[in-house]
Amino acid sequence: MRARRSRHITLKITRTPTECIRYGRGMRRVVPEHTKSAVGRASKVVGKGVGSAGEIEAARAVLSNFRSAHAFPLNAVTVTVRQRALDVNPNAVVAQRLKRLPTILDKLTRIPTMSVTTMHDLGGCRVVFETVEEVDALVSVLRDLPRARNRVTRVYDYLRDDPGPKASGYRGMHLAYEYGASMAEYHGLRIELQVRTQLQHAWATAVETMDLFSGSELKYSKGDRDVIRFFAIVSSLMAYEERTAPVPGAEQAPGALLAELDELESRLGIVGRLRGYAAIVGDHASSDRRSALTLALQRREGRLTVTVHETMAEAEARLNELESQNDPEVDAVLVNIARIGQLQAAYPNYYADTSMFTDFVVSRLMSFA
Fold it and tell me: How far is the C-alpha of 349 from the C-alpha of 346, rounded, in Å?
């Protein structure tokens, strides 16, 4: 049998100034099968990696059940949120999703002392509006909703001062819910609602894209300092446009921020990278292959070379080859094709969202020039 060959795609980078759960007849609800103490113990087993392979697998099963049990309260909260959001703006985008189990396990590994029972966002609902005024209107309605049995326990204002924008540049409004309606077995389970404007959502989409394709963790302020700074500056410029608080450390006047952004973009080519990554998502988001891509970014030439591999072993070998070159001008990363599909599933308006981000940056740089 003739061996399959890897395929290469080269993109020229230009330098520019949920899961939806419905319950009907015959559908089974998942209920919590373990106490919170048991879930806490399972979190430690997974986070610290202690115990036999069988014990770790059993702990993962406990966490998986606890995660899945949030589907019913998530749906209950989302029904109310969707109704109220569409009252504010009939064009509001409402989505819901359960946090992916691999993401939960990864977080426990990074923070071994954490318990899954303290995570607010195992079940997450998101609303995207056009304006900050609409965001505020929905938050005001939900916070003071009379006779609500699923109560809002806290509002996190990442737009102003409680606690304010994150240093990474993340902005939005979060409402922490606690389920307390008719199904007693779900009482106390927590759901998180995120309410954002289109600009804030476009920024978050761009960060998720960079994290996937560059191997960084920008949303945790981890990665190339210049890239982190780029996204913080863009977020502050968006905040000035929306008349909310700028990002800590990026509070200079818009003119000074634009001058710094222009220098960073000419050196890093973030806009071109994002456009190239969006093209890759278009090519591979619906692929059913269990294969991988390797990406090699030649910084100086602004060229992104994408190689499609039939097996993960081929991809890992190619990544080792690229990394062994020790070339500071080459950034190499391996991407599982399945994760590209997950990215698009999490951001149904992916192309519009990434275009809004790049268009915002380009238009501001053009006005600065």
Answer: 9
CA–CA distance, 163 with 148 (Å, rounded to integer)? 25
- The residues of the chain that CATH labels 3.30.460.10 are 36-196
> Is 15 within 8 Å of 266 (Cβ atoms)?
yes
HEC sequence for the chain: CCCCCCEEEEEECCCCCCCCCCCCCCCCCCCCCCCHHHHHHHHHHHHHCCCCHHHHHHHHHHHHHHHHCCHHHHHHHHHHHHHHHHHHCCCCEEEEEECCHHHHHHHHHHCCCCCHHHCCCCEEEEEEECCHHHHHHHHHHHHCCCCCCCEEEEEEECCCCEECCCCCCCCCEEEEEECCCCCHHHCCCEEEEEEEEHHHHHHHHHHHHHHHHHCCEHHHCECCHHHHHHHHHHHHHHHHHHCCCCCCCCCCCHHHHHHHHHHHHHHHCHHHHHHHHHHHHHHHCCCCCCCEEEEEEECCCCEEEEEEECCHHHHHHHHHHHHHCCCCCEEEEEEEHHHHHHHHHHCCCHHHHHHHHHHHHHHHHHHHC
Q: What is the pLDDT of residue 335?
A: 79
Q: Which fold has domain 36-196?
A: Beta Polymerase; domain 2 (3.30.460)
Q: What are the tens digits of pLDDT across the range 245-256?
A: 999 999 999 999
Q: Does the structure show a pLDDT above 70 at 173?
A: yes
Mean pLDDT lowest for which of 21-25, 96-100, 343-347?
Answer: 21-25
Q: Give 170's pLDDT tier (boundaries 50, 70, 90).
A: very high
Task: Report pTM.
Answer: 0.81
Mean pLDDT of the chain: 86
